[in-house]
Specification:
The protein is mainly alpha-helical and 135 residues long. 38% of the residues lie in helices and 7% in strands. The protein has a three-stranded antiparallel β-sheet with strand order 2-1-3. The chain starts with 29 loop residues before the first helix and ends with a helix.
């Protein structure tokens, strides 16, 4: 035998449906990215990596788009493509198109980061060792 069920005189309102979890970052608008990057007519892009350093060679011209002007202002000191992408909140693909346009207009210069030698020079280590032994 089942126990009798009790009913409340004043039922509680139903709880609201669970909220959707907040997504990281904002939704990207593909139309906006096309407007920012422009039409890629010839499909040629510069060989850029996330760690490629970009340095401005000139001030932004009056004909530059706001994103191009922002890149030129930020690149007074060398910045990597990853840093520029984060500062401007643009994906890497859009940044490569922007930087390629600036490279063809010779407004920026891109170079690979300075890679240090894997092993130090043996003669330098020997000179340091002899100097320490003399102390």
């Amino acid at each position: 035998m089942t126990p009798p069920r009790r009913q409340r005189r004043y039922p509680a309102p139903e709880p609201p449906p669970p909220a959707k979890p907040a997504k990281e970052g904002r939704q990207k608008n593909p139309e906006r990215l096309y407007v920012v990057a422009g039409a890629d007519e010839d499909g040629a892009r510069a060989a850029l990596d996330l760690v490629t350093l970009v340095v401005a060679r000139a001030d932004p011209p009056p004909s530059a788009t706001p994103e191009q002007a922002a890149v030129l202002r930020l690149c007074g000191a060398p910045l990597s493509v990853a840093e520029l992408s984060a500062y401007l909140n643009l994906p890497f693909s859009a940044m490569t198109v922007l930087i390629t346009e600036l490279l063809t207009a010779e407004l920026v210069q891109a170079r690979a980061p300075i890679v240090r030698q894997a092993l130090p020079d043996r003669s330098l280590l020997e000179a340091v060792m002899h100097g320490l032994q003399r102390l």
